[in-house]
Each structure stands twice: as structure tokens, then as C-alpha cells.
TrEMBL record:
SUPFAM superfamilies: Cupredoxins
InterPro entries: Cu-oxidase-like_N, Cu-oxidase_2nd, Cu-oxidase_C, Cu-oxidase_fam, Cupredoxin, CuRO_1_AAO-like, CuRO_3_AO-like
Keyword set, alphabetical order: Glycoprotein, Signal
One Pfam family named in its UniProt record: Cu-oxidase
Protein name listed in UniProt: Multicopper oxidase
Taxonomic superkingdom: Eukaryota
Signal peptide: 1-29
Membership in a protein family: Belongs to the multicopper oxidase family.
Gene3D superfamilies (alphabetical): Cupredoxins - blue copper proteins (2.60.40.420)
Every Plastocyanin-like domain range: 40-153, 166-303, 383-520
Length: 548
């Protein structure tokens, strides 16, 4: 009798294991796998004319480009040869049901020196232009970033003819100081000075060339990978037709230059329809006391004339110019491809939000040091990633509701703010900026609808001016000085998600928090299980992940 009981027990266990294995195999089934091995090292770089220590991936700065197709699985083994912990995050990749792989400290333990970790990602129901970057400390100031392109599936029509070539433009600011020196300045209670310069694809002035054939059309995917400044992008003598913003096909409006704020990505089509010679590709800073400028070269293959003279100027501190341009970017409603589908309806403007959250940034001094805060709470990392503490029910790491839905008028303080939210709810978020600087906000795990932006204080009457028909969905949005920006977002992705400033000194000094989107079902349908290879640190040491 006892032997029969044991056999039944083992049969039950075997059945459970079989179900688990089958479920895990079907999670990513029928979609291609792409494998990458990355070695993270220090190396010398010279983009601003002086030797600097950069963070390289496989000896490259910027790092290797990821090219994939909607729903592809990406298996990325990262080996850390630095002398300090390291993490990579994936700006714009939504990590559907899988915040475990998000690569920020709130969800993932760092990869220690001499160790490795394998990320398992999926570009689930996405297309578009994105990038990856190092998320710890001030590593992003030293490189370690690269482009991500997610192409549509072959049978899905794209609303423009295939370009002759697809160029990546990773542009942004750079400091001559090392990332450790920048961290020291911030830890000492001071803000960073203006960056020393701008770079394009890891190169300084005229250091990079895009070669084109006369009469052909090319796609340029432009990302602002800097840490401090908005930029303006333009090509001398050429116009740009906007076709995609962070996964949204847009109405194909033509621009002579584009403002691209921290963390944002745009795709444009450029036709080489000018007399054959070389032209400046210009990136300049926006809203800075001193305008920083750098250039690359658009080289016609039949040109014998080099660029000469000053590059064409662009907008500098004009706020209204940038605001009007941002409002002109609309969704192409007739284009095919993945798109956010709130509550089973593509009509985002017909759904009434169940909750309004207002987030106000501020720049308080706390204990005599410069900090930054959201709703008066300045974030500091705990000793254990929030996601692991939540999963293992570890107390003393964070408290739900430790940040208010509305701005708090009391004195700012340091904490570990986590906001609670319910799976499948539909929320309105107002980013209210009372400071004199442009803010850039990013939300991990999501794409949201930018329904409005304007100057002054947001009030309920501001909703009368929302775009409820054809605004774009994106993952990073700007808020102009003394202004507000409103978004609608369907909370359809369970997990622990970072909401942060893309200005890296502000993020490092506290302008971030986490949104815990919770489903009581505790089902793999809603959220994938903890990875078997998850690194356990802090109070999570000694716990187990899972057997399969």
C-alpha cells in the first residue's frame, strides 16, 4: 500500500513537471531564436579628441546592433570583465509578462565582476527603433549602448517602400570626465556641468560618414542616447519624412529638423535628391546656455566635393517651436503592425481612465545635498531588487503606496517609492513640470498614448484639448519647462516597472520610482515565472529560483 502511494506521488510530480516543461516550451514556441555573446570591457575611446575610458561590448563603441523581427526571441549572454557590477537595460523593449529581464536594479541583481548572465528577451508584438544601455551608476556616460531594430514580419505591409539602406544614428552628449568622476560629483551633492560635446555613432566632428546614391531613399533611425541634453537633428539641404516613432507608424509629415529628447527614437526617410556633393549631418543641443554642435557627413557616392563652411544652424532655446512640432506628430491609423490595444479596443480615446495619477518632479536639497524627487520622494536603491523582494515576500525592502498619486507639498525626503496598480486597469498620468528645464520621462514595460501637452498647470479642463483620435503611442515623452504632458496607458503588463527621468544625473539622484502592476491570479498567463538563472543578491540570497 505504501509503495502504491509513493508511485502515485511520483506520478503526480512527474505530471506537474511535464506541464511546466510544456508551458515553458510553448511560451516562445514557433518564433525564431537569435543568440548573442557579449564581453563587457573597458577600452580607450577618443570621440572628443582626448583619450577616455569607455565601456565596450565585444571591443566596440557603440556596441553591436541587434536586428530582429516581431516576436523573435533574443538570447544574450553578457560576460562582465569590468571591475564593478554591471547591468544592461533595453529601452523600449516591453518585456511582456517578464520584468525579470528588464535589466534595472529594481528588477534584476547586478552581474558581478568576472561573472555572466544570460538575458532571455522577446520582441513580443513590437516593431520599431530602440536601443540598449548600461543602467547602473553612471555607466551610460561611458558607452555600453547600442541600437535595437525590430522589423515587421515579412507578410505585414509597411506604409512606405523599402529604403535603399537603413542607417542607425546614435547621437548624444558626452563628458570628458570618466563615469566615476561624474558619480563622485553627484555623490558630493552637486549637479553636473554642461557636457563637453556631442557625438554621432561614437565619433566627434565629421568623424562618421553615411554614403548614399543619388536619387535613392534611405531610412535613418535616430536615438538620443545622451544623459543630459535634448538634441536637434538635421541634414544640410535635405528634408526628412517622419515614418516611425518608438514603434508607432506616423503620418508621413516632412520636417527640416527634428527635436529628439533624452531617450527618444525616431525614424525618417531621406531622399538623396540634391546635387552630388557632401553635406553636413548636424546634431546640436537644445535648451542649453551654450549650444553644442557636432557633425557627420552625408556623402553622395558620385561626389568629389567635401563639406566646407559652417554647418546649417537650427533651433536653440525656442520652446514653442518644439511644442508645436511635438503636437504635429500623429499616428498613421491605416498602417498595419503591432499597436497597443487597450481593453480589446484600438479606440484609446473612447475608454474612460479609472485612475488619474499626477507626477511632479522637483529638485530639493536634502541633508545639504542636491537631490531630485517625484511627488517629494527621492528614490534610493534598497539592498535587494524590488522584484525579488516581492516574489519571495521579503519584508523591510519596500512598502506599497510609499509614493502618492498626487504631488505632496511637504518637505522632500529619501525613500524607496513603489506605487501599486491593478492589472488591466486604464490610467491617466499627468507629468507636471514646474522647473525651468525640459524633462524627459520613460516608462519601462509599456507604450502609452500621448494625449496632450501644454504650458502651465494641468487642470481637469485641460482634457478638453486632448487628442483622443490619432496620437502616437511611445515609451519616452518630454515635458517642457513650467508645462504638463498627459498620457493614457493600459496596464496590461504585470511586473515591477521603472518610471524614470532620462536625464541620468536626475535619475541617479532620485527622480524615479517603480510601478507594481499586480494580478491576483498568480498565473503564467499573466506573468512568466522567475528565471532559473536569476541572480539572487541582498536579502534574496539563500532563496531558490525554480527547478526548470
Amino acid at each position: 500500500m505504501r509503495e502504491k502511494s509513493i508511485n502515485v506521488h511520483y506520478s503526480f510530480i512527474f505530471t506537474i513537471i511535464l506541464v511546466l516543461v510544456t508551458t515553458l516550451q510553448t511560451v516562445y514556441a514557433d518564433n525564431p531564436y537569435r543568440y548573442y555573446t557579449w564581453k563587457i570591457t573597458y577600452g580607450d575611446i577618443y570621440p572628443l579628441g582626448v583619450k577616455q575610458q569607455g565601456i565596450l561590448i565585444n571591443g566596440q563603441f557603440p556596441g553591436p546592433q541587434i536586428d530582429c523581427v516581431t516576436n523573435d526571441n533574443l538570447i544574450i549572454s553578457v560576460y562582465n570583465y569590468l571591475s564593478e557590477p554591471f547591468l544592461i537595460s533595453w529601452n523600449g523593449i516591453q518585456q511582456r509578462r517578464n520584468s525579470w529581464q528588464d535589466g534595472v536594479y529594481g528588477s534584476t541583481c547586478p552581474i558581478l565582476p568576472g561573472k555572466n548572465f544570460t538575458y532571455t528577451l522577446q520582441a513580443k508584438d513590437q516593431i520599431g527603433s530602440y536601443f540598449y544601455f548600461p543602467s547602473l551608476a553612471m555607466h551610460k556616460a561611458a558607452g555600453g549602448y547600442g541600437a535595437i531594430r525590430v522589423y515587421s514580419r515579412p507578410r505585414i505591409p509597411v506604409p512606405f517602400a523599402p529604403p535603399a539602406h537603413d542607417f542607425t544614428v546614435l547621437a548624444g552628449d558626452l563628458y570628458k570626465r570618466s563615469h566615476r568622476q561624474l558619480k563622485y560629483i553627484l555623490d558630493s551633492g552637486h549637479d553636473l556641468p554642461l557636457p563637453d560635446g556631442l557625438i554621432i555613432n561614437g565619433r566627434g566632428w565629421n568623424g562618421y560618414t553615411f554614403t548614399v546614391d543619388q536619387g535613392k531613399t534611405y531610412r535613418f533611425r535616430i536615438s538620443n542616447v545622451g544623459i543630459a541634453t535634448s538634441i536637434n537633428f538635421r541634414i544640410q539641404g535635405h528634408t526628412m519624412k517622419l515614418v516611425e516613432v518608438e514603434g508607432s507608424h506616423t503620418l508621413q509629415t516632412t520636417y527640416t529638423s527634428l527635436d529628439i529628447h533624452l531617450g527618444q527614437s525616431y525614424s525618417v526617410l531621406v531622399t538623396a535628391n540634391q546635387p552630388p556633393k557632401d553635406y553636413y549631418v548636424v546634431v546640436s543641443s537644445r535648451f542649453t546656455t551654450r549650444v553644442l554642435t557636432t557633425t557627420a557627413v552625408l556623402h553622395y557616392s558620385n561626389s568629389w566635393t567635401k563639406v566646407s563652411g559652417p554647418p546649417p544652424g537650427g533651433p536653440t532655446t525656442q520652446i514653442n517651436w518644439s511644442l508645436y512640432q511635438a503636437r504635429s506628430i500623429r499616428w498613421n491609423l491605416t498602417a498595419s503592425g503591432p499597436r497597443p490595444n487597450p481593453q480589446g479596443s484600438y479606440h484609446y480615446g473612447l475608454i474612460k481612465p479609472s485612475r488619474t495619477i499626477m507626477l511632479a518632479n522637483s529638485a530639493p536639497y536634502i541633508n545639504g545635498k542636491q537631490r531630485y524627487a517625484v511627488n517629494s520622494v527621492s528614490y534610493t536603491d534598497p539592498d535587494t531588487p524590488l522584484k525579488l523582494a516581492d516574489h519571495f515576500n521579503i519584508g523591510g525592502v519596500f512598502n506599497l503606496g510609499s509614493i502618492s498619486d498626487q504631488p505632496y507639498n511637504g518637505n522632500a525626503y529619501i525613500g524607496t517609492p513603489v506605487m501599486a496598480a491593478n492589472f488591466r486597469s486604464y490610467v491617466e498620468i499627468i507629468f507636471q513640470n514646474w522647473e525651468n528645464t525640459v524633462q524627459s520621462w520613460h516608462i519601462d514595460g509599456y507604450s502609452f498614448f500621448v494625449v496632450g501637452m501644454d504650458g502651465g498647470q494641468w487642470t481637469p479642463s485641460s482634457r478638453a484639448h486632448y487628442n483622443l483620435r490619432d496620437t502616437i503611442a511611445r515609451c519616452t515623452i518630454q515635458v517642457y519647462p513650467k508645462s504638463w504632458t498627459a498620457i493614457y496607458m493600459a496596464l496590461d503588463n504585470v511586473g515591477m516597472w521603472n518610471i524614470r527621468s532620462e536625464n541620468w544625473s536626475r535619475r541617479y539622484l532620485g527622480q524615479q520610482f517603480y510601478l507594481r502592476v499586480y494580478s491576483p491570479a498568480n498565473s503564467w498567463r499573466d506573468e512568466l515565472p522567475i528565471p532559473k538563472n536569476a541572480i539572487l543578491c541582498g536579502k534574496a540570497r539563500g532563496h531558490r529560483t525554480r527547478p526548470l
